[in-house]
Amino acid sequence: MTAVVVHHTAQGPTDAPVLVLAGSLGSTHRMWDPVVPVLAEHLRVVTYDARGHGLSPAPTGPYAIDDLADDLVLLLDTLGVARAHLGGLSLGGMTAMRLAARTPGRVGSLTVLCTSARLGPAQGWLDRAAAVRAGGAASVAPAIVERWLTPAAAQQDPALVAALVAMVSSSSAHGYAACCEAIAEMDLRPDLASITAPTLAIAGGQDPATPPEHLRLIAEGIEGARLEVLSPAAHIAVHEQPAAVARLVLDHVAAHPV
User: Fold this and answer.
1) Using the 8-state DSSP alphabet, how is residue 152 labeled?
2) The CA-based dihedral angle spanning residues 35, 29, 156, 211, taken in that order and rounded to the nearest 10 degrees
3) For the chain, what is the radius of gyration of the CA atoms?
4) What is the CATH number of the domain that holds 71?
5) 153-201 tens-digit pLDDT
6) Residue 232: cis peptide before it, omega within 30 degrees of 0
7) Per the domain annotation, does 173 fall within a domain?
8) Are 32 and 60 in contact (CB under 8 A)?
């Protein structure tokens, strides 16, 4: 499939190293809002909406993780960036890992959060895709957001819960479902040994979607990678641990200049 031009934003000094952040299934670039202000003090931070999400197009046809990686390469090309630091959470982490394995010269460092190299069972993703095709992303949004935050965080900030539910609900039904189907068939475990970018894996200690064991497998599969587990944090760790995530990312990027 042909790569698509995705909607993106850029903040921070124009002459600073570039960090591109790829978000989770069902999110827009606004998912990164808790950490962007701190990161943008030191880096040129680019956030974007994956295909089928936010203001990006939702092309017809099936999607694969390679298609999402192609979109990310086109974004780098559009920005005129030959080599960038990449960060990705959940689906964004899968996209970033695939790009790092496939085109290592484009990746200065890699930070993956709350993600997995293989996220089965496949049937669960196919069932979710079918539900979204039938009822739209809004039909699954409340259940998805329950996994994004710990119960304590959700109870403390109902406005955030409502905003995240609205974010998921805004996704294109076809785009969301096609991304589910891409996850169903994805297996990046053979790719891990090919990733040469310095890698940091960050897990949410209470993440029910991609528990720390998934990030441990990634860290063990990529030579020299290290694992950090943040607690309390569920699937969207940037919302519950923004200061810790920003510090870890800044330290990792600073240690590996492009």
Assistant:
1) H
2) -80
3) 16
4) 3.40.50.1820
5) 999 999 999 999 999 999 999 999 999 999 999 999 999 999 999 999 9
6) yes
7) no
8) no
Max distance between CA atoms of the chain, in angstroms, equals 47
The strands making up 199-204's β-sheet, listed across from edge to edge, are: 8-11, 44-48, 18-22, 84-89, 107-113, 199-204, 226-230
- Contact yes or no for 167/26 (Cβ under 8 A): yes
- Residue 87's SS3 state is strand
Query: Among residues 254, 253, 230, 252, which one has the least CA distance to residue 242?
Result: 230
Record the tokens describing residue 83, joined without a space.
Answer: 């080599």
* Domain span holding position 87: 8-119+185-254
Cα 244-249-252 angle, rounded to 5 deg: 125
Q: How much of the chain, in percent, has pLDDT values that exceed 70? A: 100
Residues 6 or more apart whose Cβ sits within 8 Å of residue 66: 98, 102
Burial class (CB in 10 A: 0-12, 13-18, 19+), 104: middle
The tokens for 135 are 């009822």
Q: What's the structural domain count of the chain?
A: 1
Distances (CA, A) of 163 to 30, 46, 136, 153, 223: 10, 22, 17, 14, 38
SS3 state of residue 28: coil
